[in-house]
Automatic annotation (TrEMBL):
This is Serine/threonine-protein phosphatase 4 regulatory subunit 3-like central domain-containing protein. It comes from the Eukaryota. Keywords: Nucleus. It comes from Musa acuminata subsp. malaccensis. The keyword Nucleotidyltransferase does not apply.
Length: 862
């Protein structure tokens, strides 16, 4: 080992001088040589060897795990040699050689140490030991030594020997009784140490023997005589006199009763008697015994159908006394609590059976009790069900007619119980309204019940428990179910904090549902009354609430905050806090920083414009400065956007005006054409502009003014000379005249005239004002082509109540000309309303495009 471990550079690094401490306290130089760690001849132990140049050994020192080696400075290693009974030292020429040898000595000592541990563990007991000595007062020290000094492997062997000796525990118990009778304290102390050592063997088989009905009380009695305690303990008296086993329901199975008693005693030994002595492994073994016993008991009881039915029958019975019902509820609570030792599938099956039997009705009655122990038991049962399967409790709450259980939970949350119970009620309600762990219909139903019937109650408790700055109540005080007035001083601050936490949870879980409540019931204002409380943590809770609301980035809620100035109490609390660096200071700054980072412009402008004077004293803070910069940026962007919006709006108005002109043009053109067609259908004989008379009465259907079937004759058509009485054109075999199509010149003249008319009407409408156009667009549901009448005179309205366009255009009216109906498809009704034109009119009028033209001025068609 030494040859392989030497540095390869040079042997000078291992050159040392050997010194020995003499009687006068001086170091005597013993010589110079090279040091190595190797096996000496004829030895199996590693040794430190210093060899001279003449191959003579200056030192041969066996390295021992018990020796204490010291390294001084960087080049000296010293120790005390037990064989030579003196101190030795090695002075190295180089520090590298000293470090090399020091590392090797340390490694050898570590190996020797672990080897010694293994030897102690496996070889401390004589392998030839076949049994333990007989249990007698004289042999107790020897037995105690064997048990106490046993290693890991020997512990198993000793436990086996104890179990093989059937007389070991009987003799030990007899010896204990004898010593206790004669008050032999030395013997009792010896027995205590032996029993404690047997517990430390951590053998499940030995534990079964110890905790058996035959020996357990005497074993516990032997543990009363602890030599480290000033007086004798009285564990047996406590178990016999003070511990009373109560059977709410008689248990007929003796094995179940035995396991119940054993479980209690094991727990008593573990938690009371030997709590200071047992190691973690032994405590884990005892806990395993308790868990196994609980599982055994619950398994047998849950499979006993008659037992469960009898239990619930007694709790429902009116003849059962209040005290008996109390014991039954406590037993049910313990029964559900011990069910945690079952497998999850078995526990779920058991809880479903209990729900079917009506356990939630029992819990509802327990929560109405004035006994806080029963209330605590009821909440524990509900939490056990919610942790395993929340749908069981949600289904019950939904099916309940009056929802009394949920109402009791809300009342319990605001009642003056202990702090732990407040947290239990809060946790139950949070799990019930959790939107992530419920199905759709079940989730919506339970949330609707909570918001409609119970949320306002919690918010009113917040408001009634706070006062405004002038010490006046914020809202009228609440009237309790008993008719009394609930004072704000009754509610504990912890309850208010829990309510605020629940509201924050609801904001995150049900943003839409709670938004409606906030906007309709002014709930946010009531929560912010907490800023008037003296308790600083309640003010911080209000800040946390408003921060949660703003984090939803809901436009309606943000506008509600600005409209109702809801950040005012937050800013006032921040100003009042001053420069004190606390949670309130940090919370408000974080809120303002969030508003700035998320670029909530409406809140940025609101905060700076409303509270900048108050915030000036905090202008040295970077967050306040950044908020002001963000405000200026928002104003710049807003001005730019307003300019662009104005230009875009003007363009849109012009575009809409042009579109309106075109739409009115085509719509009114259609109205005029249909009106002209209707007028021609009314006259039995009408005269065309070219002087040709057509008999419309002989037609079976209505025909337009222009017939496009004779387009091929347009080129050869010559208008006849004008006569006083236009003649009929009888070219058609069937007697129906053919109407020639107007030329393009005539059509263009008509279009120009209509365009001039439309421009005149448009000027009149624009002069009427901008409000009329807006009203015609948004105010009614009529056709967008219709316009409001320019005159209120009834004479200017047609039969359908619409303005006569001939009056609007300013044309002269003739009493012989009748206004046309706008809807040509109304047929007979329009003809009944308007008198017919006489056929023998000496001066017939011609209707062209709703214009009255005298017969002396024919309308020529080219």
């Amino acid at each position: 080992m030494g040859a392989q471990g030497k540095p390869s550079s040079s042997l000078n690094s291992l050159l040392v001088k050997v010194y020995r401490l003499i009687d006068e306290g001086k170091w005597d130089d013993q010589g110079t040589g090279h040091v190595r760690i190797d096996y000496p001849e004829g030895s199996e132990d590693l040794s430190l060897i210093v060899e001279e140049e003449e191959n003579e050994n200056l030192i041969v020192h066996r390295i021992s795990a018990s020796e204490i080696y010291r390294r001084q400075e960087d080049t000296i290693i010293s120790w005390r040699d037990s064989k030579l009974a003196t101190d030795l030292a090695l002075s190295f020429q180089e520090a590298t050689g000293c470090s090399f040898i020091w590392d090797q000595i340390s490694e050898v000592q570590r190996n020797l140490h672990f080897s010694n541990l293994a030897d102690d563990s496996f070889h401390t007991i004589n392998s030839e030991l076949r049994d333990l000595p007989s249990v007698e007062l004289s042999s107790l020290p020897f037995i105690l030594k064997i048990v106490v000094e046993s290693g890991i492997t020997d512990q198993l062997r000793i436990a086996e020997l104890i179990l093989q000796d059937q007389e070991f525990f009987p003799k030990l118990i007899d010896l204990f009784r004898m010593c206790e009778k004669v008050k032999n304290m030395d013997g009792l102390y010896m027995i205590f140490r032996l029993v404690k050592a047997i517990f430390c063997l951590n053998s499940p088989q030995v534990f079964d023997r110890i905790f058996g009905e035959e020996y357990v009380l005497d074993i516990i009695g032997s543990l009363e005589y602890d030599p480290e305690l000033p007086q004798v303990q009285r564990h047996r008296a406590f178990l016999k006199e003070h511990v009373v086993f109560k059977e709410a329901i008689p248990i007929k199975d003796s094995s179940v009763l035995s396991k119940i008693h054993q479980t209690y005693r094991v727990a008593y030994v573990k938690d009371v008697i030997l709590a200071r002595v047992l190691d973690e492994a032994t405590i884990a073994s005892l806990s395993s015994i308790i868990h196994g016993n609980n599982s055994f008991v619950i398994s047998l009881l849950k499979d006993d159908t008659s037992f469960i039915q009898e239990l619930f029958a007694r709790m429902r019975s009116t003849s059962t006394s209040a005290e008996s019902k109390r014991e039954l509820v406590l037993f049910l609570h313990e029964f559900c609590n011990l069910s945690k030792s079952l497998q999850p599938v078995q526990q779920l099956r058991l809880f479903r059976d209990l729900a079917a039997e009506g356990i939630f009705d029992i819990v509802t009655d327990a929560l109405q009790s004035q006994d806080r122990k029963l209330v605590s038991a009821g909440t524990d049962i509900l939490i056990l069900f919610l942790n395993l399967d929340p749908s069981l409790l949600r289904t019950y709450v939904i099916q309940q007619e009056a929802n009394s259980l949920l109402g009791l939970l809300v009342e319990g949350m605001i009642s003056n119980f202990t702090e732990d119970m407040h947290c239990q009620f809060l946790e139950i309600i949070r799990i019930l309204v959790d939107s992530h762990n419920a199905s759709g219909l079940q989730r919506d139903a339970i949330i609707d019940i909570f918001y409609e019937k119970h949320l306002n109650r919690l918010i009113d408790v917040l408001a009634s428990s706070c006062r405004t700055r002038n010490n006046s109540p914020t809202i009228p005080r609440l009237v309790t179910s008993c008719g009394g007035v609930e004072s704000h001083a009754v509610t504990k601050p912890e309850i208010l904090s829990n309510i605020c936490d629940l509201l924050c949870y609801c904001v995150v879980q049900h943003p839409y549902k709670i938004k409606c409540n906030f906007l309709m019931n002014n709930a946010m204002e009531k929560v912010l009354f907490l800023t008037n409380r003296r308790e600083r943590f309640l003010v911080v809770a209000a800040v946390r609430f408003i921060r949660t609301v703003i984090s939803r980035n809901d436009e309606h809620l943000l506008h509600h905050i600005v409209k109702n100035n809801l950040l005012k109490p937050i800013i006032e609390a921040f100003i009042k806090n001053g420069d004190r660096y606390n949670m309130l200071h940090s919370g408000v700054l974080e809120l303002l920083e969030y508003i700035r980072k998320e670029n909530l412009k409406i809140l940025v402008i609101y905060v700076v414009e409303c509270f900048w004077e108050q915030l000036l004293k905090f202008q040295h803070l970077g967050i306040i400065q950044a908020l002001k910069i963000k405000y200026e940026q928002c104003l710049e962007k807003s001005e730019a956007n307003n300019t662009n919006t104005a230009v875009d709006s003007q363009k849109r108005i012009e575009e809409r005006t042009l579109e309106k002109e075109e739409e009115d043009y085509f719509n009114e053109d259609s109205d005029e054409d249909s009106g002209a067609q209707h007028m021609h259908n009314q006259h039995a004989h009408a005269t065309l502009p070219n002087g040709t008379k057509v008999n419309y009465s002989s037609r079976s259907g209505s025909v337009g003014l222009v017939d496009y079937e004779d387009d091929e004759d347009d080129d050869d058509y010559n208008p006849p000379p004008r006569k006083s009485e236009p003649s009929m054109d009888n070219d058609d075999d069937d007697g129906f005249p053919k109407i020639k199509r107007k030329s393009s010149t005539t059509v263009s003249l008509k279009d120009e005239k209509l365009l001039v008319t439309k421009k005149q009407k448009l000027e009149v409408r624009l002069n009427d004002g901008e409000d009329a156009s807006v009203a015609s667009t948004c105010g009614n549901h009529d056709s967008p082509c219709k316009s409001e009448p320019l005159h209120d005179s009834p004479s200017q309205l047609d039969s359908n109540g619409r303005p006569d366009e001939s009056d609007i255009e300013g044309e002269s009216a003739n009493p012989q000309i009748h206004r046309l109906s706008d809807a040509s498809d109304t047929g007979q009704s329009s003809r009944d309303d308007c008198p017919s034109v006489p056929h023998n009119n000496p001066s017939p009028k011609r209707v062209v495009n709703d214009k009255n033209i005298s017969g002396s001025e024919p309308f020529s068609v080219r």
